[in-house]
Amino acid sequence: xxxxxxxxxxxNKVEPKDLMPxxxxxxxxxxxxxxxxxxxxxxxxxxNWITRAPSLRRKMALLAKIQDxxxxxxYLYAATETLGDGKITADRDSxxxxxxxxxxxYSSIFNYPALSWADIGxxxxxxxxxxxxxxxMLMGNSYxxxxxxxxxxxxxxxxxQRQGYEILLTLCRxxxxxxxxxxxxxxxxxxxxxxxxxxxxxxxPNSQKSxxxxxxRESNDSLRQRFIDVTVPQAEYLGLKVPDEKLKxxxxxxxxxxxxxxxxxxxxxxxxxxxxxxxxxxxxxxxREENAWxxxxxxxxxxxx
Length: 305
Ligand code: FAQ
Description:
Elements lengths: L1 H8 L12 H20 L1 H5 L8 H26 L10 H9 L16 H22 L5 H29 L3 H20 L11 H6 L7 H19 L9 E3 L4 E3 L5 H11 L3 H14 L1 H13 L1
Antiparallel strand pairs: 1-2
Phenylacetyl coenzyme A binds next to α2, α6 and α9.
């Protein structure tokens, strides 16, 4: 164990066939598979707007973005599968089944609905923006396949973030009604986006081990603070008001102070009682049933070559 820690603390990467502690393997299967589930469940709120995108150009960009998210899911399920051994199961079918059964989590943010076209802008700007903040840190994680997947994913997320911001910029330069749509979207997505970073550090049971193994390289609170610091000026540029009365630049700290997170809501969403939890899982269950023939055909074809 000491040697393993020495190895990762010297910024070396662990590769699939290397010896690794069992709890490191488990931690990675949990986190990477949950990350993969987030990517594929995360396709749903935006997919709801493909047929209603306001122009062909917007539709093409949105389609490409959603397909990217599906691709991220694939890299991440593949990275998870490299961790399976005799004791720990990591194949895609079983990790996916855990998600459908409610045993494995996916990001809380995808349990909120996309109610207007402005929400598509807010998702790109805030949700992908928060994802990038977290994933840039994860590029430095100690597991080689996960770390390499993050490099490509971050490049794609940065296009997603910009397409979202540009949607909102267009709305904010439009009519009063369009600007109001943008403000409503920010009002609804601000706090849920901040909750993507997870519980406060002193309520985060996995953080200590994860940081020690160089999986997480920065804490939940520190990333949340950085996200707020970079995002508030972006909201100001749009001419929108962040829905937090306590938000205030603190000269001494060199950071924004902000209000108390709605932790009760977070807990509730994690328990499966968010606005769309049941609907999201139902859609994924149905898709799996209805599309089982695609998998069967692919397996039959793979058996021939
Ligand atoms: N939602 O001890 P910690 C994206 C759970 S990708 C749900 O702090 P940890 C791209 C946590 O799992 C977004 N559950 O946990 C996109 C744990 O439960 P467990 C996803 C949450 O792992 C954009 C428990 O609470 N990104 O958005 C959440 O050290 C647009 C205690 O928490 C990733 O997955 C939450 N927000 O830190 C796609 C990044 N927060 O597992 C489509 C990788 C915490 O023990 C469209 N993951 N929990 O049962 C991570 O960096 C970490 O896992 C954290 C949580 C930071 C999420």
